[in-house]
Specification:
Layout (H helix, E strand, L loop, with lengths): L8 H9 L4 H8 L3 H22 L3 H15 L13 H28 L1 H4 L20 H12 L2 H9 L3 H18 L9 H5 L7 H20 L1
Helix pairs in contact: 1-3, 3-5, 4-5, 4-7, 7-9, 7-11, 8-11, 9-11
Length: 224
């Protein structure tokens, strides 16, 4: 019987690609020098084959992760001369994508099932919420809003003015939902899981992006 350490590199890469948990990947790299070498050499290719399988709406998720990394690059604790090795950056990126995907699912599940959103005094967006038993997947809208929240005001204004009416309407529906709970002094349980996972809609950046989306929707309604 062929030992694990004597498997061809192509097969070891495939074993890595079947994993989805960064902790499991890290554990596998510690099992032998060969596995460690495979990860050092092929980490980018392995991650590129893992993410489409485990991250829904990968294009939006990648854009958000890049925006977050760009935002963090300006922090004093991340000088260019002290960047981590590439294989550690790949693992960190995978953790970030998984965390963001988890948060997007939590928020959008709450959004879809919440009675406030279903019975809002605001006119519902029929394109966003069709009258079906299966709620639409609105995670791309949340990713887009999060990216806007990380932008400067000038950048976000330009991006919003480039949105279609439908895209702006979707963003506005989500900001109304977020704003209601952000302003609720009793700190409702709807987003408790989200806060526990490290995302707090009471942060200033969410207040600012919600106000900006509302303003752009108002401006659009004035010219129609």
């Amino acid at each position: 019987m062929t030992s694990f350490a004597r498997l061809p590199p192509e097969l070891l890469c495939r074993i890595f690609e079947l994993l989805s948990d960064p902790s499991t990947i890290s554990a596998l790299t510690l099992t032998s020098r060969l596995c460690h070498s495979i990860w050092l050499t092929h980490s980018h290719r392995i991650a590129a084959n893992i993410t489409p399988r485990i991250i829904p709406h990968l294009i939006y998720a990648e854009k958000l992760a890049t925006a977050q990394e760009d935002d963090e690059a300006y922090l004093p604790r991340n000088p260019p001369s002290r960047q981590r090795p590439r294989h550690l950056q790949v693992l960190s990126r995978l953790r970030r994508l998984l965390r963001n995907a988890h948060l997007a699912s939590l928020v959008c599940d709450s959004w879809a099932r919440d009675s406030l959103f279903r019975h809002s005094p605001y006119p519902p967006n029929e394109n966003l919420l069709p009258n079906t038993s299966e709620p639409p997947d609105v995670r791309p809208v949340f990713y887009s809003l999060w990216i806007l929240a990380l932008m400067s005001q000038r950048q976000s204004t330009t991006a919003l003015r480039g949105c279609t009416q439908h895209e702006l309407s979707q963003l506005n529906e989500l900001t109304r939902f977020i704003s209601h709970y952000r302003d609720d002094l009793e700190d409702p349980a709807t987003f408790r899981d989200v806060r526990d996972a490290g995302l707090d809609f009471r942060d200033d950046m969410w207040a600012e992006v919600c106000d900006e989306v509302e303003y752009e929707c108002y401006q659009l309604s004035m010219v129609m």
